[in-house]
Design goal:
Elements: E1 2-8, H1 24-43, E2 54-57, H2 61-74, E3 81-82, H3 91-96, H4 109-127, H5 139-156, E4 160-165, H6 167-178, H7 184-189, E5 197-202, E6 207-214
Parallel strand pairs: 1-4, 2-3, 2-4
Antiparallel strand pairs: 1-5, 5-6
Helix pairs in contact: 1-2, 5-6
């Protein structure tokens, strides 16, 4: 059986002009995850050095920056394969389909909640095929891209594989593996935390879910204030 670890990117720059950049906290989260893996490998008696047979990531800056932090913390030297299918959907384009007027920056708790209420509704309509967000594929095409990545991993790898991506693709993968309704992935996505781990085991024919949205690297009291969602 192979092992697939999916990591959501570190905290990005929510509310900034360019969301697609890790914040200082996001960089610390990413490095900490790599350090945790390296320490865990060293503590296992007789264990081989931590290694991944393959690393995949999307083409977004926050994916690359998260991988660079993990690699720094864990002393890894893999060259990731870049798959745009692992990129997040465009939340701004989605929200514009139901709220074309510009939104104020989400700099208060109420504006933050308003943003995600709109996003939930926009996702539902996109999944139902009721909207066509500007510059985006259909939801069916988005989901098919995730299926293609999982299929590629099953057919070409047998060891430990790492995927660095975003909440949308990871929650979609979980929903597909569980054969859940598409809308289930919305609730999974809106609760996934930065640098959270999701673990599958896989054979040549299927993936199976072992865990979702775990943060073992931030479980110590010294790091619990590092837990973020955006």
């Amino acid at each position: 059986m192979g092992q697939l670890l999916l990591v959501r990117h570190g905290q990005a720059s929510f509310g900034a002009d360019d969301y697609d950049q890790l914040s200082d906290m996001g960089r610390r989260q990413s490095i900490r995850l790599g350090e945790y893996w390296q320490q865990a490998a060293g503590e296992r008696s007789g264990a081989e050095a931590l290694k991944f047979d393959a690393v995949f990531m999307g083409s977004l800056k926050r994916h690359r920056q998260t991988w660079e932090g993990i690699a720094q913390g864990a002393q890894l030297h893999n060259q990731p394969e870049v798959w745009p299918e692992l990129n997040e959907y465009d939340s701004h384009a989605l929200i514009e389909t139901i709220h074309p007027e510009p939104l104020a920056k989400p700099d208060t708790p109420e504006m933050y909640k308003h943003h995600f209420r709109l996003l939930r509704t926009a996702l539902q309509k996109w999944m139902a095929g009721e909207t066509a967000p500007k510059g985006m594929s259909s939801y069916a095409e988005f989901a098919a891209g995730i299926q293609a990545v999982l299929k590629h991993i099953r057919e070409n790898h047998q060891g430990r594989v790492l995927v660095v991506s975003s909440g949308g693709p990871i929650s979609t993968a979980v929903g597909q593996v569980l054969q859940a309704p598409a809308e289930t992935s919305i609730e999974l996505n809106l609760r996934i935390r930065n640098t959270a781990l999701t673990e599958f085991v896989f054979s040549a024919s299927r993936h199976m879910l072992l865990s979702y949205n775990n943060l073992p690297h931030l479980d110590h009291a010294a790091h619990r204030s590092w837990i973020t969602f955006a």
